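Colleagues,

Please find the record for the two-part complex below.
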Amino acid sequence: MIIRWVCKKCSKEWIYPVERCIYCKDNVEKKISRKLKVVGFTKVNIPSVMHPIIPYNILILEDENGNRIPKKTIKDYEMGDFYEEESSKKENAVSIVKIKYDVDIAVEEALHLINDLDVNESSKILIKPNMMATSYPYLAITTNPKTVSAVIKYLIKKGAKKENISIAEQCIYAPFEAALKKTGFEQLCKSHSIKFIDLSKSKFVEKDIGGMNIKITKEVFDKDLIINIPVLKTHLLFGISGAFENIARAVSKENLLQIENLAKERKIDLDDVIAKLHKFLPKYITIGDGTIGMEGNGPLNGNPAFLNYILASKDPVAHDAVFNELGLFMRKSRYLEIANKLGLGENNIEKIDIAGNELNATARELSPAIGSKLMKI
Amino acid sequence: MTKFDATDKSSHILAYEAAYDAIENSGIGINDIDAIVLGNMDFDYNGERQRHIPTMLSSLFKRNIPIIRTPSACSSGGAALWTAKKIAENDENINNIMALGIEKLSSCPTPIITDELMMAADQKFEQPEGLIFPAQNALVAQQHFLKYNSNADDLALIALKNHEHAFFNPKAKFYKKKITMDMIKKSQIVASPLRLFDCSISVDGAAACILSNDKSNVKLAGSSLYTDYLSTFERKDMITWNATKKAAEDAYKQANVKPKDIDVAELHDAFTIVELISYEDLGFAEKGKGQELIRNGTVKLDGKMPINTSGGLKAKGHPISATGIGQIVEITEQLRGECKERQVSNAKIGLTQNIGGAGGSVIVNVLKSS
């Protein structure tokens, strides 16, 4: 996809999403072209920090108006070949979209590549971001409100009604109101006129998970569509924090603290619990927020990773497996294998249908969460 | 200037040595320097963790004078010189001004320095797509090959020429090192069609020159800086670098010369293809015929218009911000007849071209002996 912002009056073009023409002060309009042809290519044989997997190819793609864009790919192309990123209808498809223009476009593209979402004006939709702490969004501990905003815009474009969309989360370690404000979600809800539900105050239903009585919020059981939007992070306990870790806060605060304590005493296997929890949750869509993301000692003490991509999938196991691969982590999160054995999704990267950007053309080494003597856990 | 090579000397010492050399060479005392313009890129990964380098120079030279920095990727040195000239021309309190370029890179492993340098490319469209500079220039080479029938052998000839020149330059990384055509053609492909020997080598180094309003035997007769869109793919023509064309036209006009009047030139051969397209953009050859200059020997040391007598970025070495000033040192020495085995006979007018990014910023200077 090539987008140019073109001044309606003087026809000047920008590759960046400017709002007005600096020459004639007129509005600019967005022109999108998807029919792209290869007009140049090179095979690169030396690694760099951001591009450690070699060899890779860079194509110069050109649209019918002569606009060009570079594209990294592991596949070989010839001059004159057409380049297209096809949408996948497979249930385990995971789309990888680099954020080139803005988050709205990236989220829309990521969902388009997994065959879009089926919503209408009566669809009741729950969005579950990460708002686990009182933290500014640019630190990537919590989900970027821009990503959630992009999802809301997408849903409305597809026909959903604002009044049928709600955002829901609970804070385990922070006061809810303070977190709502600092993370930017208060402002987001105001600007979109969407309600934010404090899940800790919601009604819960009890489920028996591995001999434990676990309360899960009722909010997830009476919706037509649940959209889980984790911020893509490293995690000291799970390796990564993706779909599984984020949706776990659908469980009551008391249960989560109880599980944490039992895990510290090594009385339960956290990976096992988090995987089994999914047997009792309804199906959901995951949109991985990699606008910034985190590496190092996540989920709280890591550093911004500037991933600059969005993932989307209808399969949470596949989603997290792909993020695991994108970070080139030595350790594969254990819960993925357990979840796969429980029939919750695909964890074999070879069997996952990747749409959009190729996995090896996007992967780079992220620092894993390994802890340090300076950390206060 | 210092030797361009990997060294364990710190940036402080490199800067001091280059400045000392310029002071010694000019006969102007450090107390008579009224201002300094510094070209430097502030790399994070060279282990020095030194920001705010202008005040480091104040400590080094024991002077409380205006010192500013002009980071402009690989053209930082050229930008420093251009800025120094503008200041000297417009500030009556400034009679002597030093332009100084310093860079220390050798502590960086290749993946890190490649990544660091890539930050001079566009961060949304080029960096995430792995468009490191060898790849940028490989794509430019491919387009030139397709459109104008140039080829990898032409680029190999440019590499060989610059290594032959560097053989005679004691300040060059490849001084007295014999490089053969066979070595060039068998070297690893870095980004097809470019091989290792099509790429310049990252080294440490510093270079300094002093511009004075007093009379000198070499005059900076024309100096021009132009910019172009950051990304080559965004430009209508990937193989004509307009910033070079515009800067050259302006510099020629200021110096009242034509391309054919140039006796010797130092071009920004960060990659051999850049030297080839620069023959055309500087007006030394018609568009699409740059390769003829290397095929017929015009640009060799014994040719009509020797280019990169120092060995160029290719074989002298490319310490980023020191490069643009190092070119000035070479041309000044050529015009003064001080280049010994690599001296161009009867050189009266010289040119330098210093490029930042893939043609995003270009400085062209014309120097005349007087």
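DSSP finds nine helices and 21 strands in chain A.

Comments are welcome before we finalize the supplementary table.
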